[in-house]
Amino acid sequence: MADDSLLELVNSAIATLLEVKQRLEEGEGIAEKPESPDGWKPVDFFDSTPGPVTSEEIQQTEINAQPAPAPEPQPQAQPRFCRNCGNELSPGSRFCRECGQPVD
Fold this sequence. Notes:
By secondary structure, the protein is mostly helical. The chain has helices spanning 2-25, 55-64, and strands at residues 80-81, 88-89. The protein is 33% helix and 4% strand. A two-stranded antiparallel ribbon has the order 1-2. The longest helix has 24 residues, at 2-25. The chain is elongated.
C-alpha cells in the first residue's frame, strides 16, 4: 500500500516536471506562483537590474561615504609582580610560577 502511494507521488512529480519542461520549451518561462488564479506568468529576471548610474548618484555616494572612525586604543594592562619573590606574573594567574605564593 505504501508502495502505491509512493509510486503515485513520483508519477505526479514527473508529470509536473514534464509540464514545466513543455512550458519552458514553448517560451512561457517559469511561473512565479503555479497556483495563481490567472495562470502561469513568465518571470523576467532582468526586471530588477539597475539602470545606468547618474553622476549625481555617484556624488551623493561619495558624500555619504565617510571613513570609519579609528578604534580607540585599549589600555595596556600593567605587569603584575609577585609580592614574595618579585617574579612577573602571567595575566590571570592565581599563583606565582616561581615560588607558588597565592596572588592577591
